[in-house]
Write a structure and sequence with these properties.
Shape: elongated
Low-confidence stretches: none
Number of strands: 0
Helix content: 55-70%
Distance between the termini: 75 Å
Radius of gyration: 21 Å
Structural class: mainly alpha
Largest sheet: none
Number of helices: 13
Order of helices and strands: HHHHHHHHHHHHH
Mean pLDDT: 90
Length: 223
């Protein structure tokens, strides 16, 4: 049951999400999360897809986590089909924060290999949070198809996701170490090293993988 005061509070905060000042939108998102109202969920999700400021997007995500998962999760799953990459990415990010595994079937291979790096990275993070027990190896195989993709940040995100899966990722990484693409091989070797030694830096692991590969490519290097 909502009161007239709560209605007024919600209406005013939702209107302030349209303000041109990021500070006002941030305050509005905080206000919406402070007094959750399920009627605001649709508008919050819409704002997530277009909000330019990272700090405001994070506050909007927090506001969504303050609402009942029974209301937010279905709407966020719908957003995964959005034509706006930021909408898909933010929905995945929020689902990972909520952690409700009813969202797992919506984390498709299409999202895990989305052409937009931010969407794919968000999908990887959400997947390792939501994956049901016993399906980790299958997920690792799907993630391994993305090895060698993108720049440092994208590759590091994928490595971190695979490391979360632990030993379930080992077989997929071993297979990738023999891939014809050197970028895939180097990324797989570096990730396996990080899996064994989490304290090793990613840059060091990549360079070490390249060095080992170069030695092996020399005549007699494999002996």
């Amino acid at each position: 049951m909502t009161t007239a005061g709560q209605d007024s509070h919600t209406v005013r905060a939702l209107q302030e999400l349209e303000d041109t000042r990021a500070s006002v939108r941030l305050r509005a998102a905080m206000a919406i999360g402070s007094i959750p109202d399920p009627r605001s969920v649709e508008r919050i999700v819409e704002q997530c897809a277009i909000e330019p400021e990272f700090s405001v997007r994070e506050m909007l995500t927090w506001a969504l986590t303050r609402h009942s998962a029974s209301v937010t999760v279905p709407r966020l799953i719908d957003e995964l089909r959005s034509e706006h990459p930021q909408g898909r990415s933010q929905a995945l990010h929020t689902l990972s924060k909520i952690g409700d595994r009813q969202a797992w079937p919506a984390i498709t291979r299409e999202l895990l290999s989305d052409a937009d790096d931010e969407v794919a990275r968000s999908a990887w993070r959400a997947a390792v949070v939501l994956v049901p027990e016993g399906e980790e190896s299958e997920l690792a195989g799907a993630l391994a198809t993305q090895l060698g993709r993108g720049g440092r940040e994208t590759q590091l995100s994928l490595s971190r996701a695979l490391i979360v899966l632990g030993e379930a990722a080992s077989a997929a990484l071993r297979d990738a170490m023999t891939d014809l693409d050197p970028r895939v091989r180097h990324h797989a070797v570096a990730t396996q090293r990080l899996l064994r030694d989490p304290d090793a830096g990613f840059e060091f692991a990549i360079e070490e993988a390249k060095r080992v590969a170069a030695l092996q490519d020399r005549p007699g290097g494999g002996t």
